[in-house]
Specification:
The chain is 51% helix and 11% strand. It is of the alpha/beta class. The protein has a six-stranded mixed sheet with strand order 3-2-1-4-5-6, sandwiched between helices. Strand 4 and strand 5 form a beta hairpin. Helix 11 packs antiparallel against helix 13.
């Protein structure tokens, strides 16, 4: 396969997982190359995501690496052979790559968890709310860029509102619900939208109230996207220098634990809906 110009986060994840398998087998890149009758440069290119790998070669590598997890191997084959050009490709060269990588990740996710403290999670946002958020960016976005980001965020909701929605659970702090983004009218409409979505069987919204005592488990927003197998789960966090895609098993384990802890102290879904109803009446 030919050299690719720029690997997506999904392609880079495939490369990372293949490198992990090789290292777990204690084989060097040179030894792995010899098993495929190729040179070590090709193994390095595969493991850096700069070139693809066929199903045949991937399965041969997995066998040489003594990987007996057939579910994992099948998931990696699906990643290697996927030729999907999703709706997000229309935004390539117009939006930051991280926006497209997140859309691709969501498209392939088997479930999605969100934890948010200052804003309503992106997948739950209405257009006016998203526009108000993006308009506060510093430096200010040109109107065309602002419109693109809002349109892209609205299209991402397909994983909740499309024909094949995935299970979704959001833990939202009371602060995020009370902050009036876009003014009173927009805030009311936003809360109404959350209530409407929360009625769907695949959507669960839980509120983290101010009154909760000794709550210090998580201090920043978290997006957790389920992979085809748990090893391929991904956490996405926005940092001061850009978006981070986290995939190491120890870190994933930490975030799974954090999510369970926050979920355990948040309000149950029915109580959360009642809470949001009351809050909407206060606005």
């Amino acid at each position: 396969m030919g050299i690719k110009r720029e690997a997506t986060a999904r392609q880079l994840r495939l490369a990372v997982e293949l490198r992990k398998l090789r290292e777990a087998s204690a084989l060097s890149a040179r030894e792995a190359a010899a098993l495929l009758s190729v040179n070590s440069v090709q193994i390095s290119q595969i493991e850096s995501g700069t070139t693809g790998v066929s199903e045949q070669r991937l399965r041969r590598l997995a066998a040489h690496y003594a990987c007996t997890d057939e579910d994992l191997v099948s998931a990696l084959v699906a990643m290697a052979t996927d030729r999907t050009r999703g709706w997000w490709e229309a935004y390539r060269s117009h939006l930051p790559t991280s926006f497209l990588d997140l859309s691709e990740l969501e498209h392939h996710a088997t479930f999605r968890w969100d934890v948010d403290f200052l804003h309503v999670p992106g997948l739950l946002q209405i257009e006016d709310y998203a526009r108000a958020l993006f308009s506060r960016r510093v430096p200010e976005l040109p109107q065309d860029d602002l419109d693109l980001r809002v349109r892209h965020r609205m299209q991402r909701r397909v994983i909740l509102e499309g024909e094949r929605p995935i299970p979704y659970e959001a833990l939202v702090h009371e602060a995020a619900l009370r902050i009036r983004v876009g003014g009173r009218t927009t805030s009311r409409a936003q809360l109404a939208h959350i209530l409407e979505l929360s009625e769907a069987e695949h959507v669960t919204v839980r509120v983290i109230p101010f009154e909760l005592e000794e709550f210090a488990d998580v201090t920043a927003a978290m997006v957790y996207a389920g992979g085809a197998v748990p090893r391929l789960d991904t956490v996405v966090r926005d940092g001061p220098h850009g978006t981070l895609f986290i995939d190491s098993e120890p870190q994933l384990g930490v975030f799974r634990t954090l999510f369970r802890r926050v979920k355990g102290v948040s309000l149950a879904p029915e109580r959360s809906r009642d809470f949001i109803h009351r809050l909407a009446k206060e606005l």
